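Table S5 (text form). Sequence records supplied for joint modeling of the two-component complex.
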Amino acid sequence: MRTTLDKLELGKKAKIISLNNSNIKRRLMDIGLIEDSIVFCYLVSPLKDPIAYKIKNAVIAIRKSDGKDIEVEVL
Amino acid sequence: MKKIALIGNPNVGKSTIFNTLTGMHQHTGNWPGKTVSSSKGIFGFKDKKYEIVDLPGTYSLIANSEEEMVSRDYILSLDYDLVIVVCDSLCLERNLNLVFQILEVTKNIIVVVNLMDEAKKKNVDINLNLLEKKLGVKVLGTSARSKIGIRELKEEIYNFKTKESINNSKVIENSSFIYEVSKKSNDIVSKVVKENANKKEKIDYFFDRLLTNKYVSFPLMIILMMFIFWLTIIGANYPSEILFNLFINVENYLYNFFSFLPIWLNDLLINGILKTLGWVVSVMLPPMAIFFPLFTLLEDLGILPRIAFNLDKVFQKCNSCGKQSLCMMMGFGCNAAGVVGTRIIDSKRERLIAILTNSFVPCNGRFPILLVIISVFLTSSIFFKVSILTLLIIFSIMTTFLISFILSKTLLKGYPSSFTLELSPYRRPQFIKVIIRSVFDKTLHILARSIIVTIPVGIIIYILANTGMLNTINNFLDPFGKLLGLDGVIITAFILGFPANEIVLPIILMSYLSLGTLTDYTSIVELKKILVENNWTILTAINMLILILFHFPCATTCLTIRRETGSNKWMIISMILPLLIGIILCVINSFIFLVN
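The corresponding C-alpha cell record, covering 671 residues in total, follows.
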C-alpha cells in the first residue's frame, strides 16, 4: 500500500519510494532517507508531531509537514 | 608538524577522541550538535608532533547549517595531511556515506570505527578487516571513552604516509552519486556487520516510550526539573554556611592583621573587596557547583534530544525550530554558550529567534540569585522553594514561546522550515569525569570571571559609598526603581552587574551595608534582616525575581550575540527585548500590589 511517511503507523515498516520536496531532499538523503531504504515508525511525540523513525539503525525525528512529501510503500 | 582533521557524523565521539589524543578537555555531550565550532589541539607521539582539528559533526559535505559549513570548508580546503573519519559502530551504513564522500576529496584517510564497546553491548559484530579491504583505506576500531584503541590509532597516524590524491569533490553534489554510495554502503554493511539479538535495544525502547508518552512525558520533565532543583538547594545550603563563616573569620583576621595600613586602605581591601568576594563565593559557588554537574549528567545520558523532541510541536506553532530547546538547555549553563549553540539551527531566521530569546532562561550565574531571594524572602519550606523555582522556569519558557511567536510575526516573519533531529542512544554517564570536569572547567571558570569582575566593582562601590556619590546615584535612580517596585540601589546593581550577573546581589548587599546602619551580620539568615531594613517587601522580592529573569544579557553574551549575528542591531535588540519585558512585568505587578 502506498502512502506518505507522516501517515505511517507506529510500529510499521515501509520502503521509501520517492522524496518530493527538493528543498530538503539532500538533507534527508544524507541522513539515510533514500529511495529503496527501509524506515520503521519508532516513536510519536506526545503532541503527535514530530514522529521519530528508525532509519539505518539511527532514530531520527521528522516533522509531519516534511513527512508528507515522502512517498512510501508500507511493508 | 603534520596536520590532522577529525570529522564524522554528529555525536559519534569525535571530541572524545580529540580529548584522549591531545589531553585537552573539550566539552562532550550525548546529543548531536554539541561541538559547533572547530577546535585545535597539539599532541606528540614518539619523535613527531601533530596538530589536530576537531570539526563539528556533519552528515555530508553538502552543508545545511553554519556548523556543517565549517566542516565542509575545512575538508575541501585540503589544508591537512590526513583526515580521520570517525564512524559510529552502530550506524555504520550511514556513516560510510560520509566516508565515500570524503574519499572523493582525498585518499589520505584513516577510518576509525568508534563506540565499539556499544556495539559489543548490543551484541553487534563488526568485521573490521573486511571493512578495510572493501574501503581500501586503513580501518581501526576504538572505544574512545575508555581509551581503547587510542594507542593503535597514534601508531597508525605515526606510520601514515601522505600521498598525492585527486580532488574530485564536484561529483558529491549529484543525487545519483549519493544514491550509488548509499547502495555501496548498504552492500558493505550487510557483509561486514552481523547483528544479533540484544537486550539494550529493548531497554532503550522502554525509556523512549516512557519519556515521550502522551500522559507521562510532560509531568516527568517537570518532576525531573524539580528533582534537580531540590538536590541543588539541599546540597548548596550547608557549604554556603561554611564558606560564609569562613569568609567572616578571614575578614576579621585580615582586618586586624593589616591594622598597620592606613584605615581607608584596609577598609577598601577588606570591607570593599574581600567582603564582596565573600558574598559571591559563598552565595553563588555552591549552587553552581551542584547544578552544573547534574545538568551535565543529563546531557551525557541522552535526555536532551528527547526533550527537544517532545517540545518541537510547540516551537513549530511558534514558527521556530525545535532545536531551539537544545540551545535553551545550554543557556541554563551559560547564555553565551547557548547563543553559540544556535549554530545547529539551519534556518537563519529561526536561528535569530533562538539567539534573541536565549537569555530568557536563567543561566548558572543568575540561577543562584533566584534561589537566594526565594529562600530568604518568600518561603522557608523546601517544597515551596522548589515549586516556586520550577514555576519561574516554566514561566520563562512560556515567555520564550510567546516572544518567539511574536518575533516570527513581526521582526522575523516566516514559516517553520524543515527539521530533522537525531535521538542519540542513551549512554551511561561517566559520573566521576563529569563531576570533575564540570567543577574545574565550568564552575571555576565562572568563579574566576566573577572574581575578576568583583574586584574592580568592589573598589568602585567602596569609593562611591565613601564619597557620598552612591547615595546621589541611588537617589537619582530611586524614582525609576520605585516605579518598578524596586529601589535605586537595585537598579544601580543591575547596571554595575552588566559584566557578570552573579555579582548583582552582592552589589545590592554591599550598597545597603555601606549606606545603612546594619553592618554586622553573622549568617546568611541575616540577609533577610538587611533586606527588610532597606524596605524590601514581598513585592520587591517578586519584582527582583522578574528582573533577574528579564533584563539585558551579560556583557559576554552580548558580545557573543554581536559576533554570531555580525551586527550591532541584533545585539541591541537582544538587550532591549528582555529589558522591556522585565520593566513591563514589574510595573504591572507593582500596580496590582498597589490596587490590592
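Note: Chain A has one domain: 2-74.
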